[in-house]
Amino acid sequence: MLGSIVSTQKIQMLGIDLEYSNARERISLMSKMVAPEGVPLGINRRLGTLFAFSAKEAVYKAQFPHRRRSMGYSDVVLHWRRANEWDAEATVDSIVGLEVKVISVCNWIVAVAYLLT
Q1: How far is the C-alpha of 19 from the C-alpha of 112, rounded, in Å?
Q2: What is the DSSP string of 41-60?
Q3: Which backbone phi and psi does 108 adopt, to 5 degrees?
Q4: I need a surface site. Which of 13, 64, 70, 92 has the fewest CB within 10 A?
């Protein structure tokens, strides 16, 4: 499906983040940076924290080369459209059209933030 999207549209912004899902000490630090309302509903809190943290990191990486704007974790407000134990999708308040997809693969969380033109 991505091939059909890319063939008709160009990627204006792209950010990718990887997080190791078994790093327990990092997860406790992440939970302090991700507000409870930023965690997707319908999945366990630990995995939701990882999804939200990785999504926010991907958003920062996508926007920075274009906007040259530093953003804190509270600057990135995610609206989760769908979430389960394997993947999730969200939009971002501060950047119209920016989409975020997060997936759990083995022991890794992969988040991709993108804006198509």
Answers
A1: 12
A2: TTS-HHHHHHHHHHHHHHHH
A3: -125, 150
A4: 70
